[in-house]
Design goal:
Number of domains: 1
Protein name: SsrA-binding protein
Helix content: 55-70%
Radius of gyration: 12 Å
Number of helices: 2
Number of strands: 0
Strand content: under 5%
Organism: Marivirga lumbricoides
Length: 49
């Protein structure tokens, strides 16, 4: 059940939240870094391990 929640959350994040893949990570603001960390956490938990 936990994995299903994270997969749904990952799909929602991909559709709604902005992507910072092409930007320099050292020049991002704190909230942008926090958003990247959140997306990373959700993605790692949604993957099959």
């Amino acid at each position: 059940m936990k994995k299903a929640i994270f997969k749904a959350l990952a799909k929602f994040n991909k559709a709604v939240l902005p992507s910072f893949g092409n930007k320099d990570l050292t020049k991002l603001s704190k909230w942008q870094k926090a958003l990247i960390a959140y997306r990373y956490y959700v993605t790692i938990n949604a993957l099959d391990r």
